[in-house]
Amino acid sequence: MKLVAVTDIHGNSRKTRELAGVLEGEEFDAILVAGDITHFGNSREAERVLIPLLDTGRPVLAVHGNCDGRDVPELLEELGIGLHDRRREIGGIGVTGIGGSNLTPFGTVWELGEDEIRGILKRNYREGDVILSHVPPYGTKVDRVRSGLHAGSRALRDFIERKSPRMVVCGHIHEGTGIDRVGETLVVNPGPLFRGHYAVLELGKGIKVELRKL
Which of 42, 101, 112, 155 has its CA 20 to 30 A from that of 138? Predict the structure, then answer.
């Protein structure tokens, strides 16, 4: 299975149109969107951003980010692509979703306590799933902010250490673009699409990750 993963679009519909154009010539099975579709924008802006991805004709699964407006999760549900606090399957591969972020110093729109994140995982995760989370796990290469501090979720990190999910696709930390491992679990932050970053993930017996830039 081949997945395209994007995150942190922050309202840049020009980049989603550009990406959709690039993907026209490629074979892939689905698109994963790891949140911050808008930059504190509403559902109308989110829909404008998402339309080029929806128009590829491939399944899309998305969670909202901490910077998405209050009505964005409802839009994702209406479009049939919302994955926050739920689990869906694509081609026999389960995907569990966590929208928003852990608590930040900035009081953004969608923030969750660590117990809430832990509860979402407990309710939805099944062995072997991929986790699509806006926030990365704590203490990794992909949750380190510019100052060097780690800003990810401790609950997600603890869950990974205990359950060893197949892969975590995340975002949130723009400067955390990259690939890491927590035990046997691959953790991928594709990097912000508003700066042209995205990733292609090939899942078979193993997982091959290609970080790309438009």
Answer: 42
